[in-house]
């Protein structure tokens, strides 16, 4: 892959403006400058308040944990090896949720679904088979995924 170096002379008008004032501890400046993921828009809506990532992502502080993802069974939904997932144990798991479950003494991250009349943990990668639980088999859901954190810049 060829990387093109950043050019400060690039046409990026209007530039996002830095926030004035203090950023709260744990907070990250949040620009409300529109960020197009499709066709760029010239609209500018100003600045928002600083974003405290803990307040934004964590509803139940005492029951929320961070896991590091190993493996690629969830890459179809953009969860990649090395990503951090926030998991809340206070939430009741529902059909379609991505959950952390204990299977054969190991934790796994999968989508909880009813599949062919049974409860299953579904991967989001066709290279992996669903984990199907026969009637009467106990499934231990540890918690429900509520957030995803990924460092995008090289280390």
Question: How does this model look, in words?
Answer:
- This protein is mainly beta.
- 3% of the residues lie in helices and 31% in strands.
- It has a seven-stranded antiparallel beta sheet, with no helix packed on it.
- A hairpin with a 2-residue loop joins strand 6 and strand 7.
- Mean pLDDT is 77; it is low at 1-23.
Question: How do the strands and helices of this protein lay out in sequence?
Answer:
Blueprint: E1 27-28, E2 51-52, H1 53-57, E3 64-68, E4 84-88, E5 98-103, E6 106-115, E7 118-122, E8 131-133, E9 140-149
Antiparallel strand pairs: 1-2, 3-4, 4-9, 5-6, 5-9, 6-7, 7-8
Distance between the termini: 18 Å
Q: Give the structural class.
A: mainly beta
Largest sheet: 7 strands, antiparallel
Poorly predicted runs of 5 or more residues:
1-23
Shape: globular
* Lateral arrangement of strands in the main beta sheet: 3-4-9-5-6-7-8
How many β strands by DSSP? 9
Element order: H for helix, E for strand: EEHEEEEEEE
Mean of pLDDT: 77
CA-based gyration radius: 20 Å
Share of β-strand residues: 25-35%
Determine the fraction of residues in helical runs and give it as a percent range.
under 10%
- Number of discrete helical segments: 1
Key terms for this structure?
seven-stranded antiparallel beta sheet, 31% strand, disordered N terminus
Brief rundown of the structure:
The chain is built from one helix and nine strands.
């Amino acid at each position: 892959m060829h990387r093109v170096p950043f050019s400060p002379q690039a046409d990026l008008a209007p530039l996002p403006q830095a926030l004035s004032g203090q950023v709260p501890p744990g907070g990250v400046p949040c620009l409300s400058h529109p960020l197009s993921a499709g066709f760029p828009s010239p609209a500018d809506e100003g600045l928002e308040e600083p974003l405290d990532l803990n307040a934004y992502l964590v509803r139940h502080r005492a029951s929320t944990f961070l896991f590091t993802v190993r493996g690629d069974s969830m890459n179809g939904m953009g969860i990649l090896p090395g990503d951090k997932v926030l998991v809340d144990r206070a939430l009741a798991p529902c059909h379609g949720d991505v959950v952390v479950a204990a299977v054969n003494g190991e934790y796994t991250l999968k989508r909880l679904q009813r599949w062919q009349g049974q409860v299953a943990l579904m991967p989001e990668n066709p290279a992996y088979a669903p984990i199907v639980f026969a009637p009467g088999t106990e499934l231990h859901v540890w918690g429900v995924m509520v957030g995803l954190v990924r460092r995008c810049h090289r280390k």
